[in-house]
């Protein structure tokens, strides 16, 4: 009987730890975009609140992250598809601006790349890529941890289908 309780305790413990880890690494955290401290790669501040009226796609990424690098061309092409529909795409990293500039040049990026003065970890971003979509009132209407999949046309349609 004693071993039965030990097994039950271990199962409950495993489920609890599994739930904690899933919640920490696979669910995008609540985010206060008004508190972000971002600069573009020319050193100019980016105020997310100042982008009200636009649909803003925010991607937290790393230049060293395989899934981030894989989805980057999808984001670039999706931005081109949606550029006349009021969308703005911003990719945010806490890496040094010089490293982000080199990355932008290497991939010939047209998308806005921003440096966060706060670490992603400090903001609760534990997994990258992590993506958010803000409606024109700067409210989160979509969030996802993990790589964007599908074609740029499919992803553009997914963004159009969000209830803004």
Structure characteristics:
Glutaredoxin; alpha/beta; 7 strands; seven-stranded mixed sheet; 164 residues; 4 helices; 2 domains
Order of helices and strands: HEEEHEHEEEH
The total count of strands amounts to: 7
Q: Which architecture of the largest domain does the CATH hierarchy give at level 2?
A: 3-Layer(aba) Sandwich
Q: β content, as a range?
A: 15-25%
CATH fold call of the largest domain:
Glutaredoxin
H/I helix tally: 4
| Physical arrangement of strands within the biggest beta sheet | 2-1-5-4-3-6-7
Arithmetic mean of pLDDT:
88
Number of domains: 2
**Major sheet:** 7 strands, mixed
Shape designation? globular
User: What is the structural class?
Assistant: alpha/beta
Q: Uncertain regions: pLDDT < 50 for 5+ in a row?
A: none
Helix share bin = 25-40%
**Could you give me the name of the CATH homologous superfamily of the largest domain?**
Glutaredoxin
Q: Which CATH first-tier class of the largest domain would you pick?
A: Alpha Beta
Radius of gyration: 18 Å
Please give the alpha-carbon distance between the first and last residues: 56 Å
């Amino acid at each position: 009987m004693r071993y039965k309780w030990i097994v039950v305790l271990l199962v409950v413990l495993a489920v609890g730890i599994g739930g904690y880890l899933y919640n920490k690494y696979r669910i995008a955290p609540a985010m206060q975009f008004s508190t972000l401290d971002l600069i573009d790669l020319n050193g100019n501040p980016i105020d997310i609140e100042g982008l009200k009226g636009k649909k803003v796609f925010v991607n937290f990424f790393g230049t060293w992250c395989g899934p981030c690098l894989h989805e980057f061309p999808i984001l670039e092409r999706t931005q081109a598809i949606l550029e006349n529909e009021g969308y703005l795409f911003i990719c945010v990293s806490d890496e040094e601006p010089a490293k982000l500039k080199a990355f932008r040049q290497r991939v010939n990026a047209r998308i806005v790349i921003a440096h966060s003065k706060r670490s992603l970890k400090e903001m609760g971003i534990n997994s990258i890529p992590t993506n958010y979509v803000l409606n024109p009132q700067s409210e989160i209407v979509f969030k996802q941890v993990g790589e964007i999949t599908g074609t740029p046309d499919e992803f553009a349609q997914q963004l159009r289908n969000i209830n803004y």
